[in-house]
């Protein structure tokens, strides 16, 4: 169960990171409300998962999945540049996340 909470936390991290793009510097009300809500939910879920998982592992997985997911969504839907180097780097992040899961 803590791993499921951690993955949900990471998905909410992706949501708030992408949401930042739409807040326009926190000047648009509803995108700001959605972004802040996703941020709070993400941190609460991370805190719940960290009750039983090692904090270093939980934090690294949370940020790794969040970063990789944000990069991929940016490339797929927001016009971020796509290159072999960027895809390789995202793959390395995900490999690290899988390694932390396997060895935890």
UniProtKB/TrEMBL annotation:
Membrane topology type: Multi-pass membrane protein
Record's GO cellular component terms: plasma membrane
Protein localization: Cell membrane
GO terms under biological process: xenobiotic detoxification by transmembrane export across the plasma membrane
GO molecular function: transmembrane transporter activity
Transmembrane feature ranges: 27-47, 59-78, 84-103
Keyword Transmembrane: yes
Keywords carried by this UniProt record: Cell membrane, Membrane, Transmembrane, Transmembrane helix, Transport
Pfam families in alphabetical order: Multi_Drug_Res
Gene3D superfamilies for this protein: 1.10.3730.20
Domain of life: Bacteria
Entry annotated with the keyword Membrane: yes
Similarity section: Belongs to the drug/metabolite transporter (DMT) superfamily. Small multidrug resistance (SMR) (TC 2.A.7.1) family. Gdx/SugE subfamily.
Protein name per UniProt: Guanidinium exporter
Taxonomic lineage of the native organism: Bacteria, Pseudomonadati, Verrucomicrobiota, Verrucomicrobiia, Verrucomicrobiales
């Amino acid at each position: 169960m803590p791993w499921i909470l951690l993955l949900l936390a990471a998905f909410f991290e992706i949501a708030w990171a992408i949401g930042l793009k739409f807040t326009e510097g926190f000047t648009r009300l509803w995108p700001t409300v959605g972004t802040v809500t996703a941020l709070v939910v993400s941190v609460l879920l991370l805190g719940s998962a960290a009750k039983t998982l090692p904090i270093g592992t939980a934090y690294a997985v949370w940020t790794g999945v969040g970063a990789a997911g944000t990069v991929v969504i940016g490339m797929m839907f927001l016009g971020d540049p796509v290159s072999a180097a960027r895809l390789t780097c995202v793959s390395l992040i995900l490999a690290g996340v899988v390694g932390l899961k396997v060895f935890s």
